[in-house]
DNA sequence: TGGTGTGGAGAACGATCATTCTCTATCGTA
DNA sequence: TACGATAGAGAATGATCGTTCTCCACACCA
């Protein structure tokens, strides 16, 4: 097995285990066992657990945002419809087997106070998501697209937290309805 | 020192340390040192770390919700204003020194998959908050107060997560503005 | 064929942690 | 004052974890 394949297998195992059970609950030996990569190779690819966690978060960030953007690009019928498609994608995500909330919120709560690198990875993810939503609202004819994007971001995060803790994917519905109301109100200022 | 005082000091130390640094990052010896309660007494009051964590969460739940309800009761000028007062209280909370997000979201992400009791404490907190918000929206003349309460809950959770990760208390502002828009729209169905 | 380096398996190390145990001192009571 | 129970300090225990080290097998090259 070459170093590239080992890296991929390590990140796959890390994502599965860390996301499912939390970071501190998963030892490096579990990563070794689930990836089939020896400990020596593991520490060649990632010199510490923290670097492995950071790499897991950064890869997940990219994949998560690409999946969201792809869905919105493929399913939104208009620029006005795009922000609502975000919540359809969220609902599907919430309903996935093994959904356990936002990996960045979870790892931030667990290690944000201890590890600046993990805290920063979480901030980077949220910033990128905010930029994406601003891109969607900038295409609309509304007075304050940035504030609207911040409101949508608030709904996205809130729905994710509620879906995770309640275990009910329907948490996406009030969020989508709220987003629709905000969009309509932003289009027709009093 | 009697058992009651020991319990109080233990819960005080637990809340300070667990909230600030996360649960798994704080050992029982730290709780002993910061509370001034001996290990023997500690384990008489709480037979395991998990029971201490659960007690910390339940006490924090009550205090947090009472503080919110007191603020809203004291500052809301009308039933229509009450939901917005929630976000003023949130903003003040976000600006507190040592604010580090919602203790229940954090502990859920850290240990929800491992400890059913901690997961349940988080659900209980969110359910109680939802009931409180439903109480506020039930007093309004709106078509669907329960859905409105769920939307407010989504905004509350989202603002809390964003404020924690960004470190910026201003996350309360777009949430409050969104709440105002939703309230106005609920009062005047098209 | 012999030497060298790489990789894997897993033992070893050192630290930390939850929990329990030991020893000693203190205190209320007769 | 003498005794029995209780409490505190902190050592001990047993487990886990991140990380490193040892040992051996195998492949590549002269």
Automatic annotation (TrEMBL), chains A, B:
SUPFAM superfamilies, per database record: Homeodomain-like (SSF46689), Tetracyclin repressor-like, C-terminal domain (SSF48498)
InterPro entries the record matches: Homeodomain-like_sf (IPR009057), HTH_TetR (IPR001647), Tet_transcr_reg_TetR-rel_C_sf (IPR036271)
MF (Gene Ontology): DNA binding
Domain HTH tetR-type, residue spans: 4-64
Keywords attached to this entry: DNA-binding, Transcription, Transcription regulation
Lineage top rank: taxon: Bacteria
One Pfam family matching this protein: TetR_N
Annotation: DNA-binding region: 27-46
Name used for this protein in its record: TetR family transcriptional regulator
Species in which this protein is naturally found: Prauserella flavalba
Higher taxonomy: Bacteria, Bacillati, Actinomycetota, Actinomycetes, Pseudonocardiales
């Amino acid at each position: 097995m070459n170093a590239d394949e080992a890296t991929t297998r390590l990140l796959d195992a890390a994502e599965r285990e860390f996301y499912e059970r939390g970071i501190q609950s998963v030892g490096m030996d579990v990563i070794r066992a689930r990836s089939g990569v020896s400990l020596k190779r593991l520490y060649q690819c990632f010199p510490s657990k923290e670097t492995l966690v950071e790499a897991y978060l950064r890869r997940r960030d990219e994949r998560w945002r690409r999946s969201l953007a792809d869905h919105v690009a493929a399913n939104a019928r208009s620029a006005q419809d795009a922000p609502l498609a975000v919540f359809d994608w969220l609902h599907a995500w919430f309903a996935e087997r093994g959904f356990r909330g936002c990996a960045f919120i979870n790892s931030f709560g667990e290690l944000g106070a201890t590890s600046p690198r993990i805290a920063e990875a979480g901030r980077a993810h949220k910033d990128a998501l905010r930029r994406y939503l601003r891109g969607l609202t900038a295409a609309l004819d509304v007075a304050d697209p940035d504030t609207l994007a911040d409101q949508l971001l608030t709904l996205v995060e809130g729905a994710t937290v509620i879906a995770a803790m309640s275990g009910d994917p329907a948490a996406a519905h009030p969020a989508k309805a709220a987003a629709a109301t905000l969009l309509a109100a932003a289009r027709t200022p009093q």
